[in-house]
Design a protein that fits this description.
Oligomer: single chain
Strand content: 35-45%
Radius of gyration: 15 Å
Shape: elongated
Number of strands: 5
Structural class: mainly beta
Number of domains: 1
């Protein structure tokens, strides 16, 4: 289940990225330091917990939905400028927010 920090329907698209950590807690506060040109976190979810090769250690697979500083809704005249809505110039990891809400 996705935890939304902002309504995804307010955006033309959101980027979907996978993230693996040793913690079940999603690193909301430190995430921007790990990704270049991090703009805004829209939502996140825990996908699965897996045993690692080390006894007693688990890996947690998360997905998060976000925008870079130069994405259309944060910078209308940026590299992905164009009409509002899903379509046109978008990054390859863009997903339609309407589909995420279904």
């Amino acid at each position: 289940m996705i935890t939304w920090l902002d309504n995804p329907l307010n955006y033309s698209y959101v980027r979907k990225t996978s993230y693996t950590s040793l913690s079940s807690r999603f690193p909301v506060k430190t995430l921007g330091k790990k990704f270049q040109q991090f703009g805004k976190l829209i939502g996140h979810e825990l996908i699965e917990r897996k045993d690692s090769n080390t006894k007693g250690v688990y890996l947690y697979h998360h997905q998060f939905y976000w925008l870079k500083e130069h994405d259309r809704d944060l910078a209308p005249d940026g590299v992905y400028k164009g009409p509002r809505g899903f379509g046109g110039r978008m990054p390859v990891e863009a997903v339609d927010p309407v589909r995420l809400m279904e």
